[in-house]
Hints:
8 copies of one chain form a homooctamer.
Chain A lengths: L2 H12 L5 H10 L12 H5 L5 E4 L5 H13 L4 E4 L3 H10 L4 E3 L4 E4 L12 E5 L5 H13 L4 E4 L7 H5 L2 H5 L3 E6 L5 H8 L4 E5 L11 H8 L6 E3 L5 H12 L4
Parallel strand pairs in A: 1-2, 5-6, 5-7, 7-8, 8-9
Antiparallel strand pairs in A: 2-4, 3-4
Amino acid sequence: MRRERVRALLAEVAEGRLAVDVALAQLDHAPVDELGFATLDRHRALRQGFPEVVFGQGKEPAQVVAICERLESHGDGFLVTRADAALRAALQGRWDAADVNAMARTVLLRGAAPPPRGTQAVAIVTAGTSDLPVAEEAAVTLDAFGHPTMRVTDVGVAGIHRILAQRETLAGAAVIIVVAGMDGALPSVVGGLVEVPVIAVPTSVGYGAAFQGLAPLLTMLNSCAAGVTVCNIDNGFGAAVAAARILAHPR
Amino acid sequence: MRRERVRALLAEVAEGRLAVDVALAQLDHAPVDELGFATLDRHRALRQGFPEVVFGQGKEPAQVVAICERLESHGDGFLVTRADAALRAALQGRWDAADVNAMARTVLLRGAAPPPRGTQAVAIVTAGTSDLPVAEEAAVTLDAFGHPTMRVTDVGVAGIHRILAQRETLAGAAVIIVVAGMDGALPSVVGGLVEVPVIAVPTSVGYGAAFQGLAPLLTMLNSCAAGVTVCNIDNGFGAAVAAARILAHPR
Amino acid sequence: MRRERVRALLAEVAEGRLAVDVALAQLDHAPVDELGFATLDRHRALRQGFPEVVFGQGKEPAQVVAICERLESHGDGFLVTRADAALRAALQGRWDAADVNAMARTVLLRGAAPPPRGTQAVAIVTAGTSDLPVAEEAAVTLDAFGHPTMRVTDVGVAGIHRILAQRETLAGAAVIIVVAGMDGALPSVVGGLVEVPVIAVPTSVGYGAAFQGLAPLLTMLNSCAAGVTVCNIDNGFGAAVAAARILAHPR
Amino acid sequence: MRRERVRALLAEVAEGRLAVDVALAQLDHAPVDELGFATLDRHRALRQGFPEVVFGQGKEPAQVVAICERLESHGDGFLVTRADAALRAALQGRWDAADVNAMARTVLLRGAAPPPRGTQAVAIVTAGTSDLPVAEEAAVTLDAFGHPTMRVTDVGVAGIHRILAQRETLAGAAVIIVVAGMDGALPSVVGGLVEVPVIAVPTSVGYGAAFQGLAPLLTMLNSCAAGVTVCNIDNGFGAAVAAARILAHPR
Amino acid sequence: MRRERVRALLAEVAEGRLAVDVALAQLDHAPVDELGFATLDRHRALRQGFPEVVFGQGKEPAQVVAICERLESHGDGFLVTRADAALRAALQGRWDAADVNAMARTVLLRGAAPPPRGTQAVAIVTAGTSDLPVAEEAAVTLDAFGHPTMRVTDVGVAGIHRILAQRETLAGAAVIIVVAGMDGALPSVVGGLVEVPVIAVPTSVGYGAAFQGLAPLLTMLNSCAAGVTVCNIDNGFGAAVAAARILAHPR
Amino acid sequence: MRRERVRALLAEVAEGRLAVDVALAQLDHAPVDELGFATLDRHRALRQGFPEVVFGQGKEPAQVVAICERLESHGDGFLVTRADAALRAALQGRWDAADVNAMARTVLLRGAAPPPRGTQAVAIVTAGTSDLPVAEEAAVTLDAFGHPTMRVTDVGVAGIHRILAQRETLAGAAVIIVVAGMDGALPSVVGGLVEVPVIAVPTSVGYGAAFQGLAPLLTMLNSCAAGVTVCNIDNGFGAAVAAARILAHPR
Amino acid sequence: MRRERVRALLAEVAEGRLAVDVALAQLDHAPVDELGFATLDRHRALRQGFPEVVFGQGKEPAQVVAICERLESHGDGFLVTRADAALRAALQGRWDAADVNAMARTVLLRGAAPPPRGTQAVAIVTAGTSDLPVAEEAAVTLDAFGHPTMRVTDVGVAGIHRILAQRETLAGAAVIIVVAGMDGALPSVVGGLVEVPVIAVPTSVGYGAAFQGLAPLLTMLNSCAAGVTVCNIDNGFGAAVAAARILAHPR
Amino acid sequence: MRRERVRALLAEVAEGRLAVDVALAQLDHAPVDELGFATLDRHRALRQGFPEVVFGQGKEPAQVVAICERLESHGDGFLVTRADAALRAALQGRWDAADVNAMARTVLLRGAAPPPRGTQAVAIVTAGTSDLPVAEEAAVTLDAFGHPTMRVTDVGVAGIHRILAQRETLAGAAVIIVVAGMDGALPSVVGGLVEVPVIAVPTSVGYGAAFQGLAPLLTMLNSCAAGVTVCNIDNGFGAAVAAARILAHPR
């Protein structure tokens, strides 16, 4: 029951056109989603110029296309993540204007009124080249939300000078996303080098005792650099949203 | 080799008092920590009015007292975390002015020039009363760093109206720390209600298949609310530092 | 030794045609399954108008067809679960009248005398669209057993208003099955909203630290809503049978 | 904002004593818990003659006494679970009339108007004598809720005749709770013997590869008897509430 | 319904004193345990001169004493395993004649008619001295069952000559129990040296990645010597019973 | 250095044809496997009419054919396990006389002098039809070693009368192999019904929390029937060898 | 800023062509990797005649070819590990002279100035034939680095005489790499036979409770032979580098 | 049968004083440990001036004292590891001259002829102060074996300048042992800074998702610095022996 409808109901009561008990009964049965709790519907808020996000994994291409057509009809654009080759082809075939990123496995159609461009950048740091798809997913997501990104790639701690050489880049970032598989040690070093928020993303890169990302996940949760927080394995999208939450409001 | 020393060396070279090869050799052997990499020493930056933090677990009371005496001699104050009853007694006995918090297991001695008081608040939300010690550790840490906190307690999702009733409090927070054991479901709900950063802390509260916090840890890593990030089990201190990283600089 | 045979044996003893020792020896060697322990043979009881259930996974299509032909010859109909595309095609090719459900991966042939239609409904609630196959398996199973179902879909807790808006539907259910992957938090919320039995089914939906359903499984076992019980991962069939057990007898 | 307050507000609007916009604003800020969502507050419903339940583990005796004093002041009585010896002594010292059960680790104070006595019984079946404390917790909880119980003890499957000899008892139960540690095999046998709901509770009884209850937990989740549902390890209380949910309403 | 009672019933039918239907009804309700299924009650068979076994862990000394008094009244003697110091003292205090073995944590009271002494020996092999308590539990159990044992101690594979030097002893055994913690490698070597049955028992000896016996358990399950079977961690009693099963009947 | 060669060497020394030092040096360099340690070379012992066993998994068909040709040249025959379709075809193509068992994934070529037929039978019991391949591997292996087998299939504990009805068959077995996936409860029941050795084999049959056989493995290790021993998951071959060890020598 | 550049800068200062402050600023901004920290860049050191190593897994053939072309342009040669058939074909097609090893999954192109041949050999010992690919990867790597290797294959501990027969070979090695799957017991035996460094490599060979190499990994970490160190599962390359570290410098 | 005895036996044969068959029989029964396999008895080799090592954990003080008295009687001295306070007191009370190290939990009695002092040093690097007991155990062990050690303490990667500042110390080491708990990231950085062997030791330092050392163990096994090898959790002694193996022989 949107606020306008409640106002109308109250006006009817005030004008004597609606009995108190009838109004009470109507309020009793108003579903929560009609009460106009703005903060309850996160999607609406994010949708202010932002594309809606569709998780493509495990869905049929036809299903995703149908969902995206509905989203596009609202004028919002969309971002499809975890889109495999078949899904990317289906979406590209339907929307010429869509940005397809094979490495990130994303398809982005910008809305009519894209979000304003942010002024603060997110640094996306990767330990190895195999971590790039996860980093790219984060980058595409942040781009879709209007936040500039900087890439620092292949700076794993086994060659510690590589990350040290990037201190200036890191110093220019408002938030840092660190993506690493195998030993997952990079966020501990980065967390010690900077004071800004550090979001760690373990990847399933590696083999054997990496156990599909369990090893770097545990490493990051136990980071000796205080204040590093962690996302799910391979969750570049989640890290980007976490960064967007930090950047969303002036502080 | 602090910057002043490098300048002096260069001056000697410029004045012809030092041969190029000798200067080169001295630069060769300068330890990195003398090169003046400001960002390398996180502690110094944090120490600008902040207390140093000592992890008390597994240390003898006498050791911790000795460490704290050294810290106090720098005029910085200190915050001891994971202080058991014996350690708290030892510290209280040595410093009358220290703030001892038995539930948080912390001892705080404020420095001569405490950090300026922040204007933005961190909401600390707990699912059950057993999660309070972890929440309290986070609160004491944030207080020591100068950030105001708000408490929202006992709002586990089994009585969903409890957290919904706190929407206004949540809306007033710049960052939200959610502390939960057992099913660890609360951050998913909170993450859907707000747009600000949400930091989830699993606790070891529970029994059986909670596996000392593994269950809520996995829940939080898989949160269906995008952009929730996670700390180690029972790591209230880490969550507070993560919040402080977010609040540290204007955005 | 079915009850009739025991009666006949006793009659022979009464008539003096069978010596006591011979009768005793025959009773001694009667296999348990012939003693007419009605409760021992669950299948017979369930078969009163119900289809027999065949677990299709890991069986050759020809094997399953053969099993189903035998079942059909008893006039009972059958329900095949976990039927992949090849198996569904084989069964459809053999029985035109069979109901094939690709999403649920089931094939149902109703018996000559289907079970009477129940009057109490089971609500099947899903957190996300990817949980639908498991929910559908539960729904088809309940339908085969004669129980009406209601669907509440895509009401994950990250948008808490979605489940709250369905309170009236939930209030009309005699049993609620909640199907969720990823964080598995939905049963905790539903369990707090209703007083009827809540059966939670974790799904293998998700990635990374979801560990093929381990994360929601642990969440549900640790639900902060008391009295929620849990089935195996992806076990929609088991949840339906658990609901049918509850509905089977008047209370 | 309880229903009465909304009615009063509407009356004021009807009488012209309150402007529509002011009434609208007051409704806007009404916390959800005041909107009279009856189903949201499960505790109130359960409290109709039922004692409130307090989880005693990890709380100071003084804290629990204080909580119970508040509950008693409502006239409701209380049930404290996971009460160790010290807590039991503290509660017994404060309330002479309380029923203390050392094996179940419970303290029960019946309310002024206890719930009506149910007519349907719950069978509580244990595999070994070491499983008795968990069974006892379930029994005390069901008793507090007004449901009669029957005990079937020490009927582990290694002596299969023991459970078979209890078929008549099982046949008389409306719900069966099966408590087992070690191999956790008993629910699979019981689930095959009866058609009523079977709730399985793994216990931490055992050693070595029992891994504190993990082994029977997995056994039960994979029960080859369809429709068996599972509670957390050692969670006798949860199993009792699940049974109470089943028995709560006529079907 | 013991066989005698069935015979009496049949006699009554034969004599015309009992109607067929009444007899049928009585048979219907005869509990299985009264039908004289000799093989169902393993304990009775084992009791032929063997002591009954009581698992002492987690039981109060008074409880165990009471159980043992009942057993002794049958003239059977008893074997209590996992008896801690308090329990051992209680039993010793009650029965002077009991054999108390502190390392094995056992108390044995031989029955009036102990089982006949076997002629075939079981070799009990341990990798290190810390594995001795588990080996001793196996030895006491076998002794109680009448089987001779041979000990081969401290022959871990890091000094491979130690086990090789014992080939003659091994060659004289009818069954070999191998007890090992840490790497659990010894059964693989022994299994390759002999052709008799090898029963492996992992122990919780070790630290760190031994994970309380998980490491040797997995090692033994994956033994490269074919035909090695495995017991639960620290389960010396179980290994002894497995050996007794092998030795029980001539082959 | 086979015993004959040592004897020859000694004879040469005795005859003065070989100097002591030369003989000593030859003995020094004799590989251990030539020293005639009969018990060291298990394979030779088993090879007395038994086929050699080749583990086919992960080997190229051509490799396995080559190995088998070498074995056949010794006149021993061979048994290839874990042979997939391609490997089975390759072996069948090479040896017409080979027995190919697709379900067991085995290829058996009997040797010129097959082992004598044993008189004692091994019962192979399976809980469900999906467990048959593992049971079949055990059966083929025992057959190759000359031991008769009996099959008891589809007697899972959810229909407890099924296994009880087979008591006579079980009573006729010298050893019982119990194969079960999912809850793995069957060995506990069988172990309680018989006194002969029971060897439990968990299978990877099941889904979800069966975790590829981990659930039944843990169940079996924690069996409440004493003296049940356990093999690796899906290891039908190992169970057969364990049974053969028991049957190998008269007791 | 390589050392030459720092020297040039100092020379300019000495000659008065560069002001001290300007030189200071240039030094301030010199990335760490240009400061000539020889030990920081491990790759340069290794590149002294050694091939660079490229981890092929998860990379596109075209990507790897491009990387290798760059490496070859430096005259260094390269070693590609984890190269599947497609990648091996692509590299072989591009470089005729490359050594392709299908079993080791490696492609090696020797540099213009290969490293000098070492005089000390590494023994690579394998438990079973299925462990050979991992052993081969280690052998190819050591060969590329100039170290001779010796192979000892198929000496698993179930036939203990096999490894004992190789004592002389082991005695001639400066370092021993032991590769084993399944029970992973071999390093414990080898570690007890020799005094030289023993590097253990678990492999994912096996099935069931081998859990993709977890079982031998735990075995090796708990080796009862002191001083055995362990590499990641299947990490033949890592073991070779560990051996090369040991052999790199005279001691 | 030592070589001398075989020579004597051969001489008797040569001299005709011993029949060939008798000599053959004596050789047949010679235990392997008498065959003079020098390398089989590692202890003897290590004992050349080295103390014997006794693992004190889980042994009674009286037992350890007895063992040490026997060792001392050989003139060898001894090193007891994992000695708790009671054991340390018992040993100190018996041997005044013993070196007791409470932090390392060791008691060392040097032998009459201690091993010669090595010239090459082992660097023992720790991430945090809580890792010191493990490092100290390694240091005491190396000292007992005659190898000099250097300590680099509290250089965790969160303050990366700390380890960089120690490059010169690291450069002077022949072997480096890196001890770290929590995230276990330090060996990856050290492994990239040096070319000498790096032995990583995870510790159980930390809490929550450190899981008693599992987290750093996995980190180290997945180290992105090639050639780092790993010991068991908290196994400082093992790391020291691994280093001693490397230093034992000139290369």
